[in-house]
């Protein structure tokens, strides 16, 4: 059985740091070429209907959200951390403000799956009832 790799935990923390400062180039460096992202639970539906996104698609969604929908979103430090042989799980919260002035506060369980020090899969579990209501109201404002 493999031991947890401390570098993977550092990378997971760095992802949050780069999201907070909108450094997409540095963020991309942590993602494997075959990286996959999913929003979960399955009751969360992206506006475009996609269930899973690759590296470039996910980075574009992150860039779009931060440039078109939000003034700022800040991810807090993890409230809980689980670190396994090839994965890291964070329980965390975020706060932010939409471009229209609507306060944003969400809660997440994020699972990072690694091969070496590259993230191959990121599952982002959100507060589904909050997210569905918030983004429906936000889309209605656009």
Automatic annotation (TrEMBL):
All residue ranges annotated as the SnoaL-like domain in the record: 14-121
One Pfam family from the UniProt entry?
Answer: SnoaL_2
Q: What InterPro entries does the entry give?
A: NTF2-like_dom_sf, SnoaL-like
Q: Which domain of life is it from?
A: Eukaryota
| The protein's name | SnoaL-like domain-containing protein
Which parts of the chain are coiled coil? none
Q: Which Gene3D superfamilies match?
A: 3.10.450.50
């Amino acid at each position: 059985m493999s031991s947890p790799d401390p570098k993977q935990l550092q990378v997971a923390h760095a992802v949050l740091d780069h999201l907070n400062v909108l450094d997409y180039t540095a963020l991309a460096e942590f993602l494997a070429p075959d990286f996959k992202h999913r929003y979960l639970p399955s009751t969360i539906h992206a506006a475009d209907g996609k269930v899973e996104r690759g590296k470039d698609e996910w980075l574009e969604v992150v860039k779009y959200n931060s440039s078109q929908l939000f003034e700022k979103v800040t991810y807090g430090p993890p409230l809980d951390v689980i670190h396994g042989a090839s994965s890291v799980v964070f329980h965390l919260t975020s706060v932010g403000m939409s471009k229209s002035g609507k306060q944003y506060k969400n809660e997440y369980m994020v699972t990072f799956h690694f091969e070496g020090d590259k993230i191959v899969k990121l599952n982002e579990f959100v507060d589904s009832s909050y997210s569905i209501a918030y983004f429906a109201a936000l889309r209605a404002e656009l």
